[in-house]
Amino acid sequence: MSRTARIELPDALRAWVERETGSTVVASASHHAGASRSAWNLEVEAAGAVRRLFLLKDKRDGGGSIRDAAVLRALAETGIPVPEVVAADKKQAVVVLSRLPGRSDFPAADEPQELRERTAAHLMALTAKLHALDPRRLRIAHLALPETPEDCARRTLTEVRGALRALGEAADPFFQFALNWLEANAPNSVEHYSLVHSDMGPGNFLFEEGRVTGIIDWEVAHFGDPMEDLAAIAVRDMATPVGSLAKRFDEYAACSGNAVDLPRVHYYRALVLVRNSLMIGLGIAQPSKQMDIDEMTMYQTLLVRAAALVLCDNLGIERPDQPPPVGDPTDAERVDVSALLGRPMSSLPDGASIDAALRDAVAGDPTAGAERGADLARFFALRLHRVAQSHKALLGVLFERLPQLLVPR
């Protein structure tokens, strides 16, 4: 950033940064940081020395930046490469971090394949190193160890169920079906608890010359099942590929000395996809001024379709192929709904009432009848394939990006 660049930081934040750092802000530029936070690249100067910093501020109440800072402080002496916390303020929901070397656009198109593979392998080694840390020695006030293996998923499930209630009838009935299944099938075993990033993967690390230089964005980190981070990497692989997931998991196993439990990775991949797509949906329903609605709609479409396909994997059924485009996708869906509910098309209500009928169909005991669950999973996968087709122009190259199948080796 040039020191002659105009300063985009709001005056109140600029004054706070200068008080906390004992420096003068000489340059700042807005930086894209997703749906939950605003961000700025900063340069500050004191006694002729210029320092490069990064500022994050929550867009809403929720404490994401303060949680991020607490985790970063706990990891500062562990060998996990993370930014230094320069200053943080809970009242303003803001944190200032050191700016690490490297770029975040993995996989970089201009970087040789060999370096991309080395970077991805290093990410897996660092993920294994993170999971080897004893959580009891990490002083993170807002985190507590799970009491049971099921608790590894329960906190996230509670959060996601709250988002579903907040969205109400604006949420696709698929989410109710998915959450019912996830709540009934939380894994009941775990080898050990670890600090879990929970959004690990491309976009949330910096890299340079085949090495990861920093892991960032720890706002949703918690103590839980290490397999959740492998699932998160598999989720992020769709938009920003990390290569063969089977190879990445082999690298993790070699570095950690622990086998990868694919059934648990399957489960957490579905959980992370449902969580992320629902949270994006909540953001779209209550957008901030800075939100790019088209971009968020693109990502939600990508993730919710993937969630439906991955749920099929979890149920042990084959993913349905993408249906051929039709003139009126509503008519095609009415045929599918009619078959699912066992009612003739002429008796089906229209519009939102169809969603109400689907909610009735997925209500109740999610374990009652494997065949019924499989029928619902196939139906929602087809439905969300059609939603993706309707947003094909918005998705662009992401339209063809489906979650990799996780096959035992």
Question: Which descriptors apply to this entry?
Answer:
globular, Aminoglycoside 3'-phosphotransferase, Chain: A, domain 2, alpha+beta, five-stranded antiparallel β-sheet, Phosphorylase Kinase, domain 1
Task: Please specify the SSE layout and strand pairing.
Blueprint: H1 11-21, E1 24-31, E2 37-46, E3 49-58, H2 64-75, E4 85-89, E5 94-98, H3 113-132, H4 151-167, H5 173-184, E6 194-196, E7 205-208, E8 211-215, E9 222-224, H6 227-236, H7 245-256, H8 262-285, H9 293-314, H10 329-341, H11 352-362, H12 370-390, H13 392-395
Helix pairs in contact: 3-7, 4-5, 4-8, 5-8, 5-11, 6-8, 8-9, 9-12, 10-12
Structure description:
The structure is a single chain. The chain is α+β, with helices and mostly antiparallel strands and 409 residues long. It has two domains: 24-98, Phosphorylase Kinase, domain 1 (2-Layer Sandwich); 113-400, Aminoglycoside phosphotransferase (APH), C-terminal lobe (Aminoglycoside 3'-phosphotransferase, Chain: A, domain 2). It is built from 13 helices and nine strands. The strands form three sheets. A five-stranded antiparallel sheet has the order 1-2-3-5-4. A two-stranded antiparallel sheet has the order 6-9. Helix 9 packs antiparallel against helix 12. The protein starts with 10 loop residues before the first helix and ends in a 14-residue tail after the last helix.
